[in-house]
Specification:
Strand content: under 5%
Shape: elongated
Oligomer: single chain
Largest sheet: none
Structural class: mainly alpha
Order of helices and strands: HHH
């Protein structure tokens, strides 16, 4: 952020409500560990490239979320049936 946007450490400290010394310490860590940050950036790029997007699943295809590596799917597919679902407890309320 400091280098890409050419922001001064005092500006960063002010925006994030940090002591300016903490910003300088973070910058020193960044400059002393270029391999770590290069690997971190590469990892983030790989995750972005491996992400599943809506374009990866044709709209008419049914799929098993587990096949896509989703352990706990929170999105349901609308099958066009507008019949109300029964309550899980069977109360009908």
């Amino acid at each position: 952020m400091v280098h890409r946007r050419k922001l001064a450490p005092p500006t960063i400290a002010d925006r994030f409500e940090l002591p300016e010394a903490a910003v300088h310490e973070a910058l020193a860590f960044y400059h002393l560990n270029p391999e770590y940050f290069a690997e971190l950036n590469a990892s983030r790029r790989r995750q972005h490239e491996d992400a599943i997007t809506p374009d990866d699943v044709p709209p008419d295809d049914s799929f098993d979320a587990a096949e896509l590596g989703v352990e706990n799917p929170s999105v349901t597919v609308d099958d066009g049936d507008d019949t109300p679902e029964p309550d899980p407890d069977g109360s009908g309320a």
